What does this fold into?
Amino acid sequence: MKNFVQRAIQKIDQLDSKQIVEILKNQASDAEMLESVLESIQDGVILTDDHMRVHYANSRCRALVPMVRLKNIDGLPLSRIIEDEHVLRYILLAVRDKHQDENNEFTFQKGSAVQTIAVTVYTYQSSSERINASFVIMFSDVTEHNANEARLRRSENLASMTTMAAGVAHEIKNPLAAMGIHLQLLRKAFDRKESLTIDDAERYLAVLEEEITRLNSIVVDFLFAVRPMDTRLRLGQITKTLEDICSFVEPELEENKVSLVRDFATSLPRLEYDEHLLKQALLNLIKNAMNAMENGGKLTLQTLLDGDQVLIRIKDTGIGMSEQTQQKIFEPYFTTKATGTGLGLTVVYKILKEHKGDITIHSRLGEGTTFTLSFPVPKSERLALKWESVTEADYEA
Ligand code: ADP
Ligand code: MG
It folds into this structure.
């Protein structure tokens, strides 16, 4: 459509007035169509030139953000039209690409309800010389979307609480049964008025004590797994944390004939993490890896940058897992070990979620297992990365 108009302009002197009228009519109907599309969408749209003068605003805008009620806003500066200073400030910063970590969501009281509006600014490179750069500002109502997300998070939490609670109920059944049996034995001895030997009494008491200890550890582990974590995220270099962990576990690994390979990326952006919790997650994973390599093997700790994510891999050459096992390992109390608690990976998963990270497994029976943890690179560090890649490219050119 654009090319057609450009061509028409080039040979305008060869066109008669009828043809020109026809072209203008077509243009007008195209413009009308575009406008009715923009009017029919649920989002607010404002178009401005690079001096932030408004050239178009659909009527939906007014329903989403506080704006002046003028009939003709064409050519007016944006600052005269948008009445909310926070939204305006955000847009002006976005235009100058000085965003940092600002939140693009704004809340407004609408009657008795609160409405959340997301503001997005796009730069539009126009081919026309008259307007060399312009901006498209979009307002979207994300109230419903945010509420759905919160609901989902809550129900996920609730679901994991339910499985945890079911797990605890199951776990405490055995110790309670053992305690019940031994109390009955004591009761019978009393009822028959038999004298109880000290040895027997010792045995019964030992069982009762042991089971009480077990019950206690089930409850303590459970509480640790379900209690909200006291997470303190700080910007830091994970390589340093990983080095610390390596020196901590290396002696024990050596004792178990497991060699440790450090494969760390040379330069990584900083991450927002809780050092204490990350160490705990890694130790749980390393312990599992060691358990999987009873006859020795190789443990590789690797870090790498993958787009907007930093990955940490823990790779072992141990017994591996079947597909079936892989599907269950994050469930609380799932264990294939005689003395396992089945809570190690539940805690790892929880720690990862606290960091907005994720965890994936790759495993083959008899070959080994790789756990990959991914952490989002904070926005402020992304800018630094972008800058680095720009300057590198400049040097190469
Ligand atoms: P636990 O170690 O107490 O059994 P976890 O939650 O740490 O509990 O692990 C659950 C199960 O996942 C383990 O019992 C084991 O079957 C499996 N698993 C975890 N890590 C590995 C690994 N590196 N290699 C093989 N199996 C593993
Ligand atoms: Mg474990």
